[in-house]
Design brief:
CATH class: Mainly Alpha
Oligomer: single chain
Keywords: Membrane, Transmembrane, Transmembrane helix
Number of helices: 7
CATH architecture: Up-down Bundle
Organism: Penicillium cosmopolitanum
Protein name: Actin cortical patch SUR7/pH-response regulator PalI
Distance between the termini: 36 Å
Number of domains: 1
InterPro entries: SUR7/Rim9-like_fungi (IPR009571), SUR7_domain (IPR052413)
CATH topology: Butyryl-CoA Dehydrogenase, subunit A, domain 3
Largest sheet: 5 strands, antiparallel
GO cellular component, one term: cell cortex of cell tip
């Protein structure tokens, strides 16, 4: 059986994008489960000494992880993160220091925590939740496209490619919006935290691994959507080749 690579190419891109999107969603929901692929990391250098706050908080789509910073080599300024625990995952998660920490930790003499940073997280709460919703919609759309492809293999129909194209396009749109929101949070929000935390030993850093995964997923779906469009509206509109005449008719014509 000859496999038409052009027909299955959209499904291949959708499958890879599906795995990457799941990684973006479930990263950090358990300890050592892609805890390095965070949206951003909040550093509180005073944490872990006299206060009850951890040295860092890596914020993900549905949870956050926290832990301590360990020196890589004696005398070296670089440090490695040691994740000690992760929060329970929530579908509409939004990190809020004033809620995650005990009273007095986020604002006290032991941790020089600017109150305005808590206000920043509160202001971006709906933004982060809308990002999570777009990721979930994208996962559903990609899954539907894969199901449509499986059905087309079992019971081929001429119009089934249109459903695959629609789901891929919808998924690409959803993941693109989610990736744009993640990029805004990674750059604009991190810059805002660093500006407000300047002089207070509070800083933030965006996660380049997460951004790489989310944009790779959106890009793959976009390529898959274009390929599916060509299969449906270009190749699909071409007339099917006429069947070859029977051998007996060819011999009769020669006589």
């Amino acid at each position: 059986m000859k496999v038409d690579f052009k027909k299955i190419f959209p499904a291949l891109t959708a499958f890879i994008a599906f795995i990457l999107t799941l990684c973006c969603l479930f990263a950090g929901t358990q300890q050592n489960l892609l805890d390095g692929a965070d949206l951003l990391t909040l550093y509180t250098p005073e944490g872990g000494t006299d206060s009850k706050a951890s040295a860092f908080y890596s914020i993900h789509v549905m949870s956050y992880c926290h832990g301590t910073l360990e020196t890589v080599e004696p005398g070296s300024s670089s440090s490695a993160r040691n994740v000690t625990a992760c929060s329970n995952r929530k579908l509409l998660f939004a990190f809020d220091p004033t809620q995650e920490w005990e009273d007095g930790v986020s604002h006290g003499p032991n941790l020089e925590w600017p109150r305005v940073i808590s206000d920043d997280f509160h202001a971006f709460r709906m933004t982060t939740r809308s990002m999570a919703v777009m990721y979930m919609i994208g996962v559903g759309a990609i899954g539907s496209a894969l199901v449509a492809r499986v059905v087309s293999l079992i019971a081929p129909r001429r119009q089934q490619g249109l459903f695959e194209f629609g789901f891929l396009l919808f998924g690409a749109l959803s993941l693109s919006i989610a990736s744009i929101i993640a990029t805004v949070i990674a750059f604009e929000f991190v810059d805002l935290i660093n500006a407000h935390g300047d002089g207070s030993n509070v800083s933030a850093k965006y996660g380049d691994k997460f951004l790489g995964m989310t944009w790779a997923s959106a890009g793959l779906l976009l390529v898959g959507s274009i390929s599916s469009f060509i299969n449906v509206f270009v190749r699909g509109m071409q007339p099917e080749p006429a069947p070859a005449p029977p051998k007996d008719e060819e011999e009769g014509d020669e006589d």
